[in-house]
Amino acid sequence: QVQLVESGGGLVQAGGSLPLSCAASGRTSSLYAMGWFRQAPGKEREFVAAIRWSGRYTYYADSVKGRFTISKDNAKNTVYLQVNSAKPEDTAVYYCAADDRRLSTGIHEYDYWGQGTQVTVSS
Fold first, then answer.
1. Is the pLDDT of residue 54 over 90?
2. Contact 111, 4 (CB under 8 A)
3. Cα–Cα distance for residue pair 123/22, rounded to 1 Å
4. What distances in angstroms separate CA 88 from CA 5, 15, 35, 110, 120, one per listed residue?
5. Is the pLDDT of residue 62 over 90?
6. Mean pLDDT of 86-100
7. How far apart (Å, rounded) are the C-alpha atoms in residues 43 and 40?
8. Which is nearest to 119 in space by CA: 48, 71, 35?
9. CA distances from 76 to 24, 32, 65, 68, 86 (A)
10. Residues with Cβ within 8 Å of residue 42, at least 6 apart in sequence
11. Mean pLDDT over residues 86-97, rounded?
12. Does an H or E element contain 35, and which?
Protein backbone atom coordinates (compact mmCIF):
# COMPACT_ATOMS: atom_id res chain seq x y z
CA GLN A 1 0.00 0.00 0.00
CA VAL A 2 0.97 3.58 -0.63
CA GLN A 3 -0.16 6.57 1.38
CA LEU A 4 -0.34 10.06 -0.09
CA VAL A 5 -0.68 13.28 1.88
CA GLU A 6 -1.17 16.63 0.16
CA SER A 7 -0.38 20.00 1.69
CA GLY A 8 0.01 23.60 0.67
CA GLY A 9 -3.46 24.57 -0.47
CA GLY A 10 -5.03 27.88 0.43
CA LEU A 11 -6.20 31.21 -0.88
CA VAL A 12 -4.28 33.04 -3.59
CA GLN A 13 -5.07 36.12 -5.64
CA ALA A 14 -5.41 35.89 -9.39
CA GLY A 15 -1.98 36.09 -10.95
CA GLY A 16 -0.33 34.79 -7.82
CA SER A 17 1.53 31.59 -7.03
CA LEU A 18 1.01 28.69 -4.67
CA PRO A 19 3.09 25.57 -4.08
CA LEU A 20 1.41 22.22 -3.44
CA SER A 21 3.17 19.15 -2.05
CA CYS A 22 2.36 15.46 -1.96
CA ALA A 23 4.35 13.18 0.33
CA ALA A 24 4.30 9.48 -0.52
CA SER A 25 4.99 6.72 1.99
CA GLY A 26 4.70 2.94 2.13
CA ARG A 27 5.57 0.80 -0.91
CA THR A 28 6.87 3.67 -3.01
CA SER A 29 9.34 1.37 -4.78
CA SER A 30 6.43 -0.05 -6.77
CA LEU A 31 5.32 3.30 -8.16
CA TYR A 32 5.67 4.26 -11.81
CA ALA A 33 4.12 7.72 -11.92
CA MET A 34 2.52 10.42 -9.84
CA GLY A 35 -0.23 12.76 -10.94
CA TRP A 36 -2.20 15.78 -9.85
CA PHE A 37 -5.92 16.06 -10.51
CA ARG A 38 -8.47 18.67 -9.49
CA GLN A 39 -12.20 18.85 -8.97
CA ALA A 40 -14.17 22.08 -8.96
CA PRO A 41 -17.66 22.28 -7.42
CA GLY A 42 -20.23 20.65 -9.69
CA LYS A 43 -17.60 19.38 -12.11
CA GLU A 44 -15.87 16.10 -12.73
CA ARG A 45 -12.37 15.44 -11.51
CA GLU A 46 -9.85 16.32 -14.21
CA PHE A 47 -6.22 15.66 -14.97
CA VAL A 48 -3.73 18.46 -14.27
CA ALA A 49 -0.20 17.07 -14.52
CA ALA A 50 1.82 13.88 -14.15
CA ILE A 51 5.44 12.87 -13.68
CA ARG A 52 7.34 9.61 -13.94
CA TRP A 53 8.54 8.34 -10.56
CA SER A 54 12.08 8.75 -11.90
CA GLY A 55 11.26 12.41 -12.52
CA ARG A 56 12.43 12.30 -16.13
CA TYR A 57 9.12 12.76 -17.93
CA THR A 58 6.26 15.16 -17.29
CA TYR A 59 2.88 15.78 -18.91
CA TYR A 60 0.41 18.63 -18.50
CA ALA A 61 -3.18 19.42 -19.31
CA ASP A 62 -3.46 22.17 -21.91
CA SER A 63 -5.29 24.38 -19.42
CA VAL A 64 -2.26 24.60 -17.12
CA LYS A 65 0.65 24.19 -19.54
CA GLY A 66 3.11 27.02 -19.13
CA ARG A 67 1.64 28.05 -15.78
CA PHE A 68 1.99 24.97 -13.56
CA THR A 69 5.12 22.94 -12.95
CA ILE A 70 5.25 19.40 -11.59
CA SER A 71 8.47 18.19 -10.02
CA LYS A 72 9.74 15.50 -7.68
CA ASP A 73 12.24 15.22 -4.86
CA ASN A 74 13.38 11.61 -4.95
CA ALA A 75 15.11 11.80 -1.58
CA LYS A 76 11.90 12.95 0.11
CA ASN A 77 9.45 10.86 -1.98
CA THR A 78 7.57 14.09 -2.50
CA VAL A 79 5.92 15.47 -5.62
CA TYR A 80 5.29 19.17 -6.01
CA LEU A 81 2.89 21.21 -8.10
CA GLN A 82 3.87 24.84 -8.46
CA VAL A 83 0.83 26.91 -9.38
CA ASN A 84 1.80 30.15 -11.12
CA SER A 85 -0.27 32.85 -12.81
CA ALA A 86 -3.28 31.50 -10.97
CA LYS A 87 -6.72 32.06 -12.46
CA PRO A 88 -10.14 31.93 -10.76
CA GLU A 89 -10.94 28.87 -12.86
CA ASP A 90 -8.08 27.06 -11.11
CA THR A 91 -10.20 27.03 -7.95
CA ALA A 92 -10.72 23.39 -7.00
CA VAL A 93 -9.78 20.63 -4.62
CA TYR A 94 -6.42 19.32 -5.81
CA TYR A 95 -5.70 15.60 -5.44
CA CYS A 96 -2.42 13.75 -5.64
CA ALA A 97 -2.48 10.25 -7.14
CA ALA A 98 -0.03 7.41 -7.77
CA ASP A 99 0.05 4.71 -10.41
CA ASP A 100 1.92 1.39 -10.38
CA ARG A 101 1.90 0.76 -14.13
CA ARG A 102 2.07 3.80 -16.40
CA LEU A 103 2.10 7.59 -16.70
CA SER A 104 -1.48 8.39 -17.58
CA THR A 105 -4.00 11.19 -17.71
CA GLY A 106 -6.86 8.83 -16.88
CA ILE A 107 -8.40 9.01 -13.44
CA HIS A 108 -9.19 5.31 -13.38
CA GLU A 109 -5.56 4.38 -14.07
CA TYR A 110 -4.38 5.61 -10.70
CA ASP A 111 -4.28 3.21 -7.77
CA TYR A 112 -3.73 5.51 -4.81
CA TRP A 113 -5.18 8.89 -3.90
CA GLY A 114 -4.60 11.55 -1.30
CA GLN A 115 -7.33 13.30 0.63
CA GLY A 116 -7.14 16.51 -1.39
CA THR A 117 -6.25 20.11 -0.63
CA GLN A 118 -8.38 23.15 -1.43
CA VAL A 119 -7.04 25.88 -3.70
CA THR A 120 -9.09 29.05 -4.01
CA VAL A 121 -8.13 31.78 -6.46
CA SER A 122 -9.75 35.16 -5.83
CA SER A 123 -10.34 37.60 -8.67
1. no
2. no
3. 26
4. 24, 9, 22, 27, 7
5. yes
6. 97
7. 5
8. 48
9. 8, 16, 25, 21, 26
10. none
11. 98
12. strand 33-39
